[in-house]
Amino acid sequence: MGWKRTTRRSFAAGSVTLLGGCLGGSGTSDSEETSDGGFERITVEGTGVPLVPVDTVHEWYEDDAARFADARGERAYDRSHVEGAVWSPAPDGRPSDPVAEWPTDARIVCYCGCPHHLSSLRASTLIDDGYEEVYVIDEGFWEWTDRGYPVAGANVDVRPELREISGVTDAAHAGETAWARHEPTGQREATAIDDAGEYHLELRFTDVTADSTIRVETPEYRVRAPLGDLVGTTVTGDVGELRG
Question: Where are the domains of the chain?
């Protein structure tokens, strides 16, 4: 996946360069007027995905003016999700995905917890499939819960521990995606590789310990190692047993 983060607002003249933020990469703002509310955008493989502030999304929720798609794994969705949201995992949904039954002109809000890597992947696929008004919660699901907005699920009071995995790969893969997966439970997370070839994954996996095996995957390599060995170091293709 190729990522580019831009802000689309109206400026009198000139442009500014944005830092890449949590998705990595960089982009520029421009002076083009848009009809999407001036929301900041991420471009994924040429598809622009608007990032919407969580408070704005909550207003839509209160007005019953949006439908919600949870782009995380099934375990995370079952534990807690935006009340009324359906499970539609990134990037392509699931067999018999409920979003497939929604009209293409419906306002759809995708979200994840990282805060918006997986949801941007899902949103870009929906846009490419012809859905006309698809957005992503910029700050992610955990900001939604922190503000006391409506949630449902089997264990809504649990906030999984944040663990961070950082790594580096060939800079030629800038803009592509790095993944972390806990294969026994199907939990996964994603982030973009930045211009220096670096990536930073934020994991909120449940039922994992320092001894749990995590698979980290980039376009250059795959590494399988205990979580405790991956946190606090720089992951490269020289770590772990699985490569290529």
Answer: 3-152, 163-235
Q: Residue 33's CB: how many other CB atoms inside 10 A?
A: 9
**What superfamily does domain 3-152 belong to in CATH?**
Rhodanese-like domain (3.40.250.10)
Angle (nearest 5°) at CA 46 between 133 and 168: 115
Structural tokens at position 221: 């390599």
Q: How many helices (H) and strands (E) does the chain have?
A: 5, 18
Q: Which residue has the tokens 């250059």?
A: 220
Tens-level pLDDT at each residue, the chain (244 residues): 554 444 332 222 222 222 222 333 322 222 222 345 689 998 887 899 999 999 999 999 999 999 999 999 999 999 999 999 999 999 999 999 999 999 999 999 999 998 999 999 999 999 999 999 999 999 999 999 999 999 999 999 988 999 999 999 999 999 999 999 999 999 999 999 999 999 999 999 999 999 999 999 999 999 999 999 999 999 998 764 433 3
Do residues 143 and 115 touch, judged by C-beta distance below 8 A? yes
In whole angstroms, what is the distance from residue 190 CA to residue 42 CA?
15
Q: Are 9 and 36 in contact (CB under 8 A)?
A: no
Say which DSSP state 219 is in.
S
The answer to whether the predicted template modeling score (pTM) of the entire model surpasses 0.85 is no
